[in-house]
Amino acid sequence: MQLTLEERAMLEGNHGPATQRAMEIVVALGNIYGAESLVPVESVQVAGVSYKNLGEAGLDFLNQWAVDGARARVPTFLNPAGLDLLQWQDLGFSPEFAHKQQQVIDTFVRMGIEATCTCTPYLVGHVPSPNAHLAWAESSAVSFANSVLGARTNREGGPSALASAITGRTANYGLHLEENRKATLRVQIECIVDEISDWAALGHLVGKVARNRIPYFTGLTLPDSHWDHLKALGAAMAASGAVALYHIEGMTPEAQMNDMLASTYEDWTITELENAYEALNQEHSSKDIDIVWLGCPHASVEEIERLARFAKGRSFVPTVWITTSRQARERALEEGYVKSIEDAGGKVVADTCAVVAPISDRFHHMATLSGKGAHYIPSYHNIPTFFGTWEQLEHIMLTGKSPIEAITSGQAK
Ligand code: F3S
């Protein structure tokens, strides 16, 4: 592999042991994937932040890297942590867990990393330039950066993203290369895809078939505020498959400018979403639901506003959480949305989400309109999960019951 003088100096230890170890990781990955060179990255997003997933071994590993002098060379920010760093007591997290999670955050901050704790950094100011090379780790953010923002990133692991932060480089392979960004699966949509849950259901269906291929959608139309729909689609495809890039005919940046279909591709037509709703839905009866979770990926201010409008003058029966970034929560607070939601008994939870927070022993039946959430919650927490439309979730918020008809509605349109 061709290395610049500076990269070679990092590898030979001239920039200290922490940078040397980081460069060894970046170069090793490049060798595994046949990269001919490294490429400078504009920003890095580090996943693996929750103490629930890291444990003591992960915290020790991070701490040692920081003690050895690891410092981020490029703007670097964090994925969600295991709890809301300010409201944890109110939300019922233990002081022991909060103490450990704070140690993790402090260690990242010592390395010069911004404690954003969100999977939607692009909603709070971290919008990459078109064609910028990135090393992002959170799968839904990777999908959004590649597909909607036209940046270039592979789906990094926690240690490899951190190594890129410390070196400012990533190996130049995979989706960093123009020739690997063409679609090999054309998906023609011949049914209505309207609500956010429809986009999530579609993502779940396509991810299962596409696996790590790049889909090219035709026949989709988007509403004006389409980022929320696209983040739902990409997150679900990245969860049920490993889709890190998709194109939508005439809409996503690369598909607007070029022919993004590969010379040979498979064709697939989707005429209904019932199967996707059914596959995601773990609750086929009218069970009591004790938590409704919104905000996966982390909610935009507009999504918080929608919940606030519904909450006004109402009273929620189950626990209702909408998870979001700290910055979006602050804006929602200024606008009065947080108050409306809290008056109804709900919570606007920052810094974390229901997948990475330790909630397994606290809740028994969940409802969500997130395809990614419905995919992971049953296996991560052993909590059966109802997946449905916004209207069905409204019903659940007011009654605590899941409607029997839920699994097949949303497609009768
Ligand atoms: Fe984000 Fe957690 Fe969903 S990290 S994409 S809210 S599972």
Biggest pleated sheet:
5 strands, parallel
Mean pLDDT: 95
The chain-level structural class is alpha/beta
- Side by side, the strands of the main sheet go 12-11-10-13-14
What does the radius of gyration come to?
21 Å
Give the topology string: H per helix, E per strand.
HHEEHEHEHHEEHEHEHEHEHEHHEEHEH
How many helix segments? 15
Quick one: overall form? globular
Provide the list of bound ligands, each named once: FE3-S4 cluster
Strand content range = 15-25%
* N- to C-terminal distance: 55 Å
Describe the structure.
The chain has about 425 residues and is α/β, with parallel strands linked by helices. It contains 15 helices and 14 strands. The chain has helices at about 5-10, 15-30, 50-65, 95-110, 140-145, 160-165, 195-210, 225-240, 255, 275-280, 300-310, 325-335, 335-345, 370-380, 390-400; strands at about 40, 45, 75-80, 135, 170, 185-190, 215-220, 245-250, 260-270, 290-300, 320-325, 345-350, 365-370, 385. Strands 12-11-10-13-14 form a five-stranded parallel beta sheet, sandwiched between helices. It has a four-stranded parallel beta sheet with strand order 8-7-6-9. Bound molecules: FE3-S4 cluster.
